[in-house]
Amino acid sequence: MGEKPETPIRFGIIGCANIARKVARAINLAPCSVLYAIGSRSIEKAKQFASDNGVRESVKIYGSYDQVLDDPFVDAVYMPLPTSLHLHWAVMAARRKKHVLIEKPTALDVTELEQILEACESNGVQFMDGSMWLHHPRTVKMKETLFDSKLLGDVNYIYSTSTTSVSPEFLENDIRVKADMDALGALGDIGWYCLGAILWAKNYQLPTLVTALPDVSKNSNGVILSCSASIQYGEPAETVGIIHCSFFSSTSMDLTITGSGGSLNLRDFIIPYQESSASFEFTVGAKLAQLHIGWNVKPQKVVVDSELPQEALMVQEFAGLVHDIRTSASHPDPKWPDISRKTQMLLDAVKKSVDFGCKPVYF
Amino acid sequence: MGEKPETPIRFGIIGCANIARKVARAINLAPCSVLYAIGSRSIEKAKQFASDNGVRESVKIYGSYDQVLDDPFVDAVYMPLPTSLHLHWAVMAARRKKHVLIEKPTALDVTELEQILEACESNGVQFMDGSMWLHHPRTVKMKETLFDSKLLGDVNYIYSTSTTSVSPEFLENDIRVKADMDALGALGDIGWYCLGAILWAKNYQLPTLVTALPDVSKNSNGVILSCSASIQYGEPAETVGIIHCSFFSSTSMDLTITGSGGSLNLRDFIIPYQESSASFEFTVGAKLAQLHIGWNVKPQKVVVDSELPQEALMVQEFAGLVHDIRTSASHPDPKWPDISRKTQMLLDAVKKSVDFGCKPVYF
């Protein structure tokens, strides 16, 4: 991450989705960024958003996305638009030299994402998707436990869920179940995190094959509302990841990583139970006690405090990279586009397996 | 469960596997039973077992299984034999009017098990398998949470693991990886619990289809060392269960049951971390807090104390049923054979799907 910039990075928000409220707050919490402009399809919606969220009067309010992109003082845009609009607006933003912080899923498929990334690269702007949990210090601490210390031994099993029980109105009207808006449904909206977690745990190595499980549920327009998949490394398997995402089950965000020597577990990996402090558990060297009447060890809890919420840390990281590009003419950091690309590739593979009746899809 | 018998139920143990040590202790801990005889293939092995485990001098030591079954004072046998020997010895025991407490997996397939159950039924003896966790008061408490209170809403997702990281010697020599001994490998030995947990959570309703996942690992003799499966209810799915069992991953015994309204979770469901007290967590009505910066609720922990270890409670339950049959000429309780039969059917289906290249197997 770059140094703290002398002049803060000015963000424009394109689209006033609910999630924008959280990120608007994060932009102001982060030490190196400021909310500079808000654009919606209508000036009324933008004004409403501004007044609902106590946005400072100095923030520019625009009645179109284009106006945000045309404002020469906007350094970067945060884009919580329906997925079907990502390609157009992210490319437009890049062409106008705006750095792009975009909500997940990044695009309808990796072909679209490649176009966005190409536009960002050729225009020298930073790209990052909105996977906030990757920026939490707990995630950093877990990675140490996983990789640096080798406490878990060889990782051979990863399990991740992302579920939320939505309302009947959501199932009827939300853009996340509309084929022309967020065609990837639950897989794109919340499955993104599960797939990201598998890749994260495998240090962004792509799997050998991906197989959707037969429990997929779709609405009448073919949008996925619930699904599960097996993400397999090696054949025969050296590591297997299993994901489950659903709009029908009560809120869950489980992540378990198991190796030959131990396991790591948490149940709130995407959004911690509380902002200021988060935890995970790990168990190392677990065996059954003599006579198998209990365990020799119990899970150990690791607590990680966080001064800033993870979304502010994400904004801080992003703004730091933008600052580096601006002040020292450095290149955009390829790490974040690479993470997005691989996650989208994995998502495409699950979708393809679903579409082809749960046939395995090879990489 | 029956009343405490005036004369305790006399157990004979057939086979001196490691697990027999735990159950020998349980037989003596349970208030209504006594260890009466031990039989091994050689008198030396039986004597060694007796001395290793501080067995009282009054306990009969036999150098063959037949001698245990021929002893008229033996009421019931506990049978921790390799699975391939279950059919022969369980049928022999039943014919000699011995009640049968048998280790899991109950048989090599449900056809074999049906023969055992038929022998038990026609001879009026009780049958029960060694799924100890079903007898823990925590399990009873979880069932209340699940079914009586409807706290979780409609259960639509169940997840269960049973893994243990075995030694190279185990992979070479243990009977649980030998095709002529425990041909069902990890699926039979530890996957049994995962499948039992799915059935338990669905009140012993059989699923619609079962599909093995492609991550199966076998040894050179075709014995399963690791596998995963999807257990689906309804088509399209109303509930899906995912299981994972493995001889390669560090000890895990995860069970998560998620419904539309909440979830229940524990990580030691097969053998609690400690004998005297066990716990589970449940989360009800979880939503993300305003702005999605945390959860509105955290998991609640339920602690359940247990005066006797679960294996002693199993023996107590079994002995109570035997006592009822003996004193009031009542019929064996069909509940336990039914649980075993359904678990074995599910196991057979997973095995079949594995053998047929992960094709779905319908019930």
List keywords for this structure.
homodimer; 363 residues; alpha/beta; Rossmann fold; Dihydrodipicolinate Reductase, domain 2; 2 domains; ten-stranded mixed beta sheet; six-stranded parallel beta sheet; 16 strands; 24% strand; disordered N terminus
Describe the structure in your own words.
The structure is a homodimer of 363-residue chains. The longest helix of chain A is centred in the last third of the chain and has 21 residues, at 335-355. Chain A has helices at 18-29, 43-52, 65-70, 86-95, 110-122, 137-148, 168-173, 185-201, 310-328, 335-355; strands at 9-14, 33-39, 60-62, 76-79, 99-102, 127-129, 155-163, 209-212, 217-218, 224-233, 239-246, 255-259, 262-266, 277-284, 300-305, 361-362. Mean pLDDT of chain A is 95; it is low at 1-5. The first copy, chain A, has ten helices and 16 strands. Chain A folds into two domains: 9-131 and 310-330, Rossmann fold, CATH 3.40.50; 133-308 and 344-362, Dihydrodipicolinate Reductase, domain 2 (2-Layer Sandwich). With 363 residues, chain A is an alpha/beta fold. Chains A and B meet through helix 1, strand 7, strand 10, strand 11 and strand 12 of A and helix 1, strand 7, strand 10, strand 11 and strand 12 of B.
